[in-house]
Amino acid sequence: GENVEQHPSTLSVQEGDSAVIKCTYSDSASNYFPWYKQELGKRPQLIIDIRSNVGEKKDQRIAVTLNKTAKHFSLHITETQPEDSAVYFCAASLGGSYIPTFGRGTSLIVHP
Amino acid sequence: GAVVSQHPSRVICKSGTSVKIECRSLDFQATTMFWYRQFPKQSLMLMATSNEGSKATYEQGVEKDKFLINHASLTLSTLTVTSAHPEDSSFYICSASGTGRDKNIQYFGAGTRLSVL
Question: Considering CB atoms only, which of A36, A42, A95 is closest to B104?
Fold first, then answer.
């Protein structure tokens, strides 16, 4: 089955800096890669996703890149703000109703 | 986007009792729902996949007689933790896949924090 590795487990940055979280996956057939943000005690929420036919996607301060050959994808957050502090999960799936496999999560701490 | 409601948000029970957690899709029909368990500062561990009208599919290592799942309708799935023990204390989250254009997206419930004394 699919295996998703996520690094780092903890990331601490100063407000205004950029943050990068990286994930690798094992199943070359995976074609859908969502990122979820989970604030403390709350539900995970989708913040951005990318499909295998696209190399990069941006949404304001958030961007995701995908390298299919290397089987890795990354989340980039620019101009970080304290409210970006949360746990971020990457996931990989075959799309559709296939169950996503989640990474272990990255705890992002943005210091004011 | 789709909304998934999960209740209760918090439950404290005595060891040996059973606890039922409900997961509802409020504005869409979910033929498949997923149940996860999350330990502090850890990832989402898939416990089982709940299919409407059929038996749930459990992940390896998850006791089906311990964690009873019922998906009686297209909008409701329940997880019952039977004869709960302190080691069952955890954060349980359900999710459902969206429909149509959103079918790839997982919509999560708010989670249930179970504390077994």
Answer: A95
Residues of chain B in contact with residue A43, where contact means CB-CB under 8 angstroms, are: 93, 108-111
Smallest Cα distance from A25 to chain B, Å: 16
Q: What is the pLDDT of residue B42?
A: 78
Instruction: Please list every residue in chain A whose beta carbon sits closer than 8 Å to the beta carbon of residue B58.
Output: none
The tens digit of pLDDT for each residue in B23-68 reads 999 988 888 899 999 988 778 889 999 888 888 999 999 999 999 9
Residue-by-residue DSSP string for A23-82: EEES-TT--EEEEEEE-TTS--EEEEEEETT-SEEEETTEEEEEETTTTEEEEEE-S--G
Which residues contact residue A45 at a Cβ distance below 8 angstroms, ignoring those fewer than 6 apart?
A: A36, A37, A38, B108
